[in-house]
């Protein structure tokens, strides 16, 4: 692409040397000039004003006489306008800028002016170079620019001659051509050629002055600016150069749309035809898209002693070495250290025997990997739910709300999609989706490693899964994808191995320091908020036989006092007992109408008694420490301390109330005697105004939970 | 570019990462866990890892930042080590400042019974 | 990317061999880490187990798992 891509001569006329830089359309103009030169109008020649021609030699580098006087279609031509008109009498619409500007100083700056400034600046320069020859009266100095000329015109007030009618360039040409048919052209042509050659040489020399003025980068920059114009829909209106040039050249002149349109027409038609422009645009777009595509290819690679080393770029970040994609699975020298950490999906955890992953940290890592795997499954399943609305029928989806409508959904879909979609078209898709869903669910289930509920390795894989906070948090979402049987298996495994849960370990803290570590209380909170609710949902629907089975498992496989000391464990016990109590009450109320058999009731009572016996002598120890100990005041402002946690021992009172409801009179007596001190302490503290108002009420309410279950009330104690 | 913004990694299903072990997979395992991060400029962070991306840009929650400053005493020429600590609720860590990321031994506390 | 099949030994081959072995990783800052190489990737991000941190030859710290961002790595070498 040339420096001046558009063919614009960006040199201002006043800066232009007599031999201006050539550009794309100069030949075109030259051809016109040639035509004019060949056709001198004898009349016009005779009337030329030859004054002030002394400097022609210097100006043109050749004999002044040789310079065709017929070039004079500038200033002096004005005086001969009538002859020209006579030669080419024709109404005209468009005005060639130069002619026009000379002929009519003020109007020269009407709309076509910028066009002329750009399009014909070559001509302008030539004319200006000759302007000393043809200055009309009132111009005492050679003017070096149109603007200066126009100023002079304005200053002089009265231009020598103002043609009434104005001619276009074409008309002038035609007139000249017609009038010169018979002239002796040969000599003229030779002279003209010689002159043009000289002129070109001068131009070249002139241009050479600017060699190396711009660096390559400068040129590229300018080129980019220019190319960018081609990518716009309206390159002329968006052309910064054009706009600025026009504004600079014609201050105060409003840039009418007309001017731009005419300029566009001018260049579109003459300098570069529409097809060429279009091709160019395509080319540019291809270049741009190529440039965009390029960095995505492979980076430069060097094979050497160090192997393949690649260089990086912004888009291709440094990859220092090429590591095989699957270092774990590559056979060969590394096979001995290859580790299969995922091999335990079948439920049998064999990784503990793996040489390089032994130890607690490796075990924990494996647990974390399982959690991540479960996360992936759930995310995929949830994505399926979101994106594929007609959830396909699924054998395992009994616990899902939309399960009942699923079978009908795909068929409705078929009819809706129209005849081109055959009825078989959608069905394989939905079955594929269903099988994918099913495999994801299976994977999720396998990842939990719920079965078998009793594991050889301790802790149980499920407990390990739940030992991670995010594992706990995942449980509510997991339960969406478990069948009822699976959910029950989950609860069974949890109950069977509950003593290994991290949330039970906090009970140590009660005995020693009195407070839970923040992580312990956090984990407990997560358990109560995430794991327990699904368990409650399962147990809440369970028949008494199931409750009995769970209680049996709990008593058989756990250290129950240990469990009961933790908030989470006590909550679990409360859930189980209260469900059993409820079913017991129901069967007593609606005898015969329930599925609960007498044997189950007996069994439940026996289990309850067993539980009571196990917990006997521990009831008072269930309370978290420092709960009501007003004698050892602790700074109230400090957060973690149990003392200031509102209603921190409510769960214990709830549990005691649940036990009291199911307890026999003897058991109630034992219970009361064990916790009497605690009850009295609470009541005394409340009545002593040791607690502030709401706290006092809370303490009484807690105590009443138990007392009401026993048929008592705190007010009775107060009155004594 | 899209990859310059940290994405919530758990929400972006990884492409079969469970079969291939990559170092970043190990970082993934510590999502929602407490981690320690050594940064350039003798800075160290401890906080819960909420999100990360392949540049190791990270979002940490409940962060404690320790800045260690070692200066030579102008007269005795002895090293004077000062540490400054500050807490930030939520922190975005730009990956290129990260040198090392680790979990202290026994920090998990959930593996032993 | 790298064709493991070539008889020529490449860094990749070396790295595959030392996976799971004790390694020494030196960082640009001069700090040295010793540990079991759990895995690494093409950016030289490194996961180490049983990591020990040495500065000026002195043991400074012990970590369980450590992840070293690849841009800091000067070299990885096998020990023993």
Q: Determine the structural class of chain B based on helices, strands and strand pairing.
A: mainly beta
How many distinct helices of chain B? 1
User: What percent of residues of chain B adopt helix (DSSP H or I)?
Assistant: under 10%
Largest sheet of chain A: 2 strands, antiparallel
The sequence of SSEs of chain B as H and E is HEEEEE
Content-based structural category of chain A? mainly alpha
Q: Which whole number gives the mean pLDDT of chain A?
A: 67
Shape of chain A: elongated
Main sheet summary of chain B: 5 strands, antiparallel
The span between the termini of chain B is 47 Å
* Helical coverage of chain A, percent range: 55-70%
The fraction of residues in strands of chain A falls at: under 5%
Distance N to C terminus of chain A: 108 Å
Give me the side-by-side strand order of the main sheet of chain B.
4-3-2-1-5
Can you describe this structure?
The complex is a heterotrimer of chains A (720), B (113) and C (80). Helices cover 57% and strands 1% of the residues of chain A. Chain A is built from 30 helices and 2 strands. Chain A has a two-stranded antiparallel sheet. In chain A, strand 1 (301-304) and strand 2 (307-310) form a beta hairpin. In chain A, helix 15 (360-387) runs parallel beside helix 19 (469-479) and helix 21 (502-512) packs across helix 22 (518-540). The N terminus of chain A is likely disordered. Chain B is mainly beta and 113 residues long. Helices cover 6% and strands 47% of the residues of chain B. Chain B has one helix at 23-29, and strands at residues 34-39, 43-52, 58-72, 79-93, 98-104. Chain B is elongated. The model of chain B is unreliable at 1-20 and 107-113 (pLDDT under 50). With 80 residues, chain C is mainly beta. Helices cover 10% and strands 52% of the residues of chain C. Chain C contains 1 helix and 5 strands. The mean pLDDT of chain C is 85. Chains in contact: A-B, A-C, B-C. Chains A and C meet through helix 15 of A and helix 1 and strand 2 of C. Strand 5 of chain B pairs antiparallel with strand 4 (58-68) of chain C.
């Amino acid at each position: 692409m040339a420096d001046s891509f558009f063919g614009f001569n960006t040199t201002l006329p006043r800066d232009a040397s007599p031999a201006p830089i050539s550009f794309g359309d100069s030949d075109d103009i030259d051809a016109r000039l040639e035509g004019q030169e060949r056709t001198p109008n004898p009349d016009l020649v005779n009337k030329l004003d030859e004054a002030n021609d002394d400097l022609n030699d210097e100006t043109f580098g050749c004999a002044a006489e040789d310079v065709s006087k017929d070039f004079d279609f500038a200033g002096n031509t004005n005086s001969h306008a009538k002859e020209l008109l006579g030669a080419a009498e024709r109404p005209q619409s468009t005005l060639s800028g130069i002619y026009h500007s000379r002929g009519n100083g003020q109007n020269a700056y009407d709309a076509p002016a910028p066009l002329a400034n750009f399009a014909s600046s070559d001509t302008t320069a030539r004319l200006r170079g000759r302007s000393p020859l043809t200055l009309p009266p009132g111009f005492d100095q050679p003017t070096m620019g149109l603007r200066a000329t126009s100023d002079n015109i304005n200053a002089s007030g009265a231009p020598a001659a103002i043609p009434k009618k104005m001619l276009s360039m074409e008309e002038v040409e035609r007139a000249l051509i017609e009038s010169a048919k018979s002239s002796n052209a040969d000599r003229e042509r030779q002279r003209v050629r010689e002159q043009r050659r000289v002129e070109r040489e001068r131009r070249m020399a002139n241009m050479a002055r600017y060699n190396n003025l711009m660096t390559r980068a400068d040129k590229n920059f300018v080129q980019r600016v220019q190319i960018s114009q081609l990518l716009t829909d309206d390159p002329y209106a968006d052309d910064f150069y054009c706009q600025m040039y026009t504004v600079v050249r014609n201050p105060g002149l409003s840039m009418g749309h007309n001017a731009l349109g005419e300029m566009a027409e001018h260049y579109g038609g003459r300098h570069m035809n529409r097809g060429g422009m279009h091709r160019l645009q395509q080319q540019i777009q291809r270049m741009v898209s190529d440039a965009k595509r390029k960095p995505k290819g492979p980076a430069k690679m060097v094979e050497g002693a160090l192997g393949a080393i690649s260089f990086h770029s912004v888009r291709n970040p440094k990859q220092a070495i090429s590591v095989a994609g699957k270092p774990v699975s590559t056979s060969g020298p590394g096979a001995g250290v290859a580790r299969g950490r995922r091999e335990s999906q079948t439920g049998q955890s064999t990784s503990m025997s793996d040489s390089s992953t032994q130890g607690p940290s490796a075990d924990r890592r494996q647990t974390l990997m399982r959690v991540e795997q479960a996360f992936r499954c759930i995310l995929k399943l949830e994505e399926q739910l979101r994106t594929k609305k007609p959830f396909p029928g699924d054998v395992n989806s009994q616990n899902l709300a939309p399960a009942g409508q699923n079978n009908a959904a795909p068929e409705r879909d078929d009819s809706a999609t129209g005849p081109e979609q055959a009825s078989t078209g959608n069905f394989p898709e939905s079955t594929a989706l269903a099988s994918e869903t099913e495999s994801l669910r299976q994977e999720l289930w396998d990842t939990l490693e719920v079965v078998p509920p009793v594991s050889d390795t301790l802790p149980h894989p499920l407990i390990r899964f739940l030992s991670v906070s995010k594992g706990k948090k995942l449980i509510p979402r997991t339960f969406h994808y478990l069948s009822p049987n699976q959910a029950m298996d989950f609860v069974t495994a949890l109950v069977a191995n509950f003593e290994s849960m991290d949330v039970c370990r906090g009970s140590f803290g009660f005995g020693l320091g009195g407070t839970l570590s923040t992580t312990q209380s956090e984990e407990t909170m997560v358990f109560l908020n995430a794991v327990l609710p699904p368990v409650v949902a399962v147990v809440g629907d369970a028949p008494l036989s199931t409750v009995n089975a769970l209680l049996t498992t709990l008593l058989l496989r756990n250290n129950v006092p240990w469990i009961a000391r933790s908030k989470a464990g006590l909550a679990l016990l409360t859930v189980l007992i209260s469900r059993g109590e409820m079913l017991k009450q129901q069967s007593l109320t609606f005898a015969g109408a329930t599925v609960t058999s007498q044997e189950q009731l007996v069994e439940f009572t026996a289990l309850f008694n067993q539980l009571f016996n196990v917990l006997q002598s521990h009831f008072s120890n269930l309370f978290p420490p420092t709960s009501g100990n007003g004698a050892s005041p602790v700074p109230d402002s400090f957060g973690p301390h149990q003392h200031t946690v509102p209603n921190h021992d409510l769960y214990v009172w709830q549990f005691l109330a649940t036990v009291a409801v199911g307890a026999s009179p003897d058991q109630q007596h034992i219970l009361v005697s064990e916790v009497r001190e605690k009850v009295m302490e609470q009541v005394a503290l409340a009545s002593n105004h040791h607690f502030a108002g709401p706290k006092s009420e809370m303490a009484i309410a807690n105590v009443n939970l138990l007392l009401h279950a026993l048929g008592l009330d705190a007010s009775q104690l107060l009155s004594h | 570019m899209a990859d310059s913004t940290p994405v919530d990694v758990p929400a972006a299903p990884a492409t079969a990462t469970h079969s291939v072990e990559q170092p970043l997979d190990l970082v993934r395992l510590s999502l929602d866990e407490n981690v320690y991060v050594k940064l350039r400029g003798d800075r160290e962070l401890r906080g819960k890892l909420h999100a990360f991306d392949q540049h190791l840009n990270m979002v940490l929650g409940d962060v404690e930042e320790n800045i260690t400053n070692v200066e030579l005493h102008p007269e005795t020429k002895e090293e004077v080590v000062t540490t400054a600590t500050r807490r930030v609720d939520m922190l975005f860590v730009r990956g290129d400042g990260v040198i090392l990321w680790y979990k202290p031994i026994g920090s998990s506390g959930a593996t032993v019974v | 990317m790298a064709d493991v099949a070539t008889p020529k030994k490449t860094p990749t081959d070396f790295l595959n061999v030392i996976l799971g072995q004790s390694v020494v990783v030196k960082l640009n800052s001069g700090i040295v880490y010793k540990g079991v190489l759990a895995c690494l990737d093409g950016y030289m991000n490194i996961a180490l187990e049983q990591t020990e941190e040495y500065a000026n030859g002195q043991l400074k710290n012990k970590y369980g798992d450590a992840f070293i961002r690849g841009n800091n790595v000067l070299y990885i070498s096998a020990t023993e």
